[in-house]
Structure formats: structure tokens, C-alpha cells
Amino acid sequence: MMKRNYFYLFVAAVAFIEVVIFSVSVDIVDPVPSVLAIILGILGIYFVRMHLDEVIEDERTQKITEITALRTLQISWVGLFLFALWIIIEALGEEFRHFNRPLGIFGFRLLAILAGIIVLYVALSIYYNKKYGV
Amino acid sequence: MKNKIKVYRAMHDLSQEALAQKMGVTRQTILAIEHGKYDPSLILAAKIAKLFNVRIDDVFLLDTLEE
């Protein structure tokens, strides 16, 4: 069992270790240690959080998390969509005569990712509608 | 939604922290409920009422506009 403040210290220590491993990864030009460290770090934090002797998450914090996540998604989606449009218009150039290919490809890829996010959102929405619906 | 948690806490000599521990929530959640900033779930409301040995509508009251 662990107190809440020790848990936050543990999270800070994990974050510090992650940074160190990331810098080692960059030095040896190998992403594997970094990826493994992040996965292990998340699992470690999750495991320790389950064994806390104080409540740090309840229905109110879950509701706050839900609303925060939704607003973050909405704001970032609209922001990135406008950014993608801006990039594409810039890339097309004046009367399509000066098409900036790398910039244009980046803009269209960003649009594709945003479309993917909508598909994921709809799929999850259908899943949770079935789970909590009739 | 209005509530009388503070009154019942006083009657049972319970601090916010003690009530929070018994309910398995944070003290901030009890504080938010008492101040009317957060409406608890039906389960939490039922657990609070059960702890005080009263009915849910003895502790939680709908505002006139919400009825």
C-alpha cells in the first residue's frame, strides 16, 4: 500500500528515468529501449495506482476527465483541420502554378489523419452505444 | 440539486475526510457535493443516504426549477 504523495513521487521518478532512457536511445540510435521503457513505465504506474491506500480517482474525477478529453479532442480537431486547410492553400500556390509538393502532401496527410480520428470516434461511439444502450 | 450532507455529517460527527473514506471518494468530491457544484451518481447518493440511515430524498432535494 502506498500514500498518495509517494505515488506522485513515484510518477516523477518514472518520468525522470524515461527521459534518461530516451537520451540513451538517441545516443545509440535505437528506439527500442525508449519504447519498452514507456510501456513498462505506464504499466508500473498503473499497477502502483491500483494499490494506493488513498482514493485519487472517483466518479467526479472520471467525469472531469471525460469532459476534458472531449473538449481537448474537439478543440484540437478543429485547430488541426484549419491548420491543414491553411497548409494546403499555401501549398497550392497562386492559381495552382506553383504547387509546393512536400507541403501539399503534409497537408493532405494531416487531413487523412483527421478523417481517421472521425472514423475512430464513430466506431467507439457505436461500440459504447451498444454497450450502454438497449 | 440541494443537499443536507453537512447537517447529517454534523449529526453523525463525521468530517468530510471521514465521509469520503467511507464512501470511497476523494474529500474534494464531498466538498463539491456539499457546495452544490457536483451532483453525485445515484449509487453514491444511495450509499450516503444508507450511511446516515435515511432516504435519498431526505438528504438530496431537487431545486424548484429542476422539478
Protein described:
The complex is a heterodimer of chains A (134) and B (67). Chain A has 134 residues and is mainly α. Chain A folds into 2 domains: 4-50, no CATH class; 59-132. The model of chain A has no long low-confidence stretch (mean pLDDT 90). Chain A is 83% helix and 0% strand. Chain A has helices at 4-28, 31-50, 59-92, 101-132. Chain A contains 4 helices and no strands. In chain A, helix 1 (4-28) packs antiparallel against helix 2 and helix 3 (59-92) runs antiparallel to helix 4. Chain B contains 5 helices and 2 strands, in the order E-H-H-H-H-H-E. Helices cover 55% and strands 6% of the residues of chain B. The mean pLDDT of chain B is 92. The N and C termini of chain B lie close together (10 Å). Chain B has a two-stranded antiparallel sheet with strand order 1-2. Chain B has helices spanning 5-11, 16-23, 27-34, 42-51, 56-59, and strands at residues 2-3, 60-61. The chains are: A mainly alpha (134), B mainly alpha (67). At the A-B interface, helix 3 of A face helix 3 of B.
Q: How would you briefly describe this protein structure?
A:
Chain A has 134 residues and is mostly helical. Chain A has helices at residues 4-28, 31-50, 59-92, 101-132. Chain A is built from four helices and no strands.
Layout of strands and helices, then pairs:
The complex is a heterodimer of chains A (134) and B (67).
Chain A: H1 4-28, H2 31-50, H3 59-92, H4 101-132
Chain B: E1 2-3, H1 5-11, H2 16-23, H3 27-34, H4 42-51, H5 56-59, E2 60-61
Antiparallel strand pairs in B: 1-2
Helix pairs in contact in B: 2-3
Counted up, domains of chain A total: 2
Mean pLDDT across the residues of chain A is: 90
Kindly, what is the distance between the CA atoms of the first and last residues of chain A, rounded to a whole number of angstroms? 40 Å
Task: Indicate the low-confidence ranges of chain A by residue numbers.
Answer: none
Going by helix content, strand content and strand pairing, the class of chain A is mainly alpha
Provide the succession of SSEs of chain B: EHHHHHE
Number of strands of chain B: 2
Distance between the termini of chain B: 10 Å
Give the structural class of chain B.
mainly alpha
CATH topology of chain B: 434 Repressor (Amino-terminal Domain)
The total beta strand count of chain A reads 0
What pair of chains forms the biggest interface?
Answer: A-B, 7 and 12 residues
Helical content of chain A (DSSP H or I, runs of 4+): over 70%
* CATH homology group of chain B: lambda repressor-like DNA-binding domains
* Radius of gyration of chain A over all CA atoms, rounded: 21 Å
The main sheet of chain B orders its strands as: 1-2
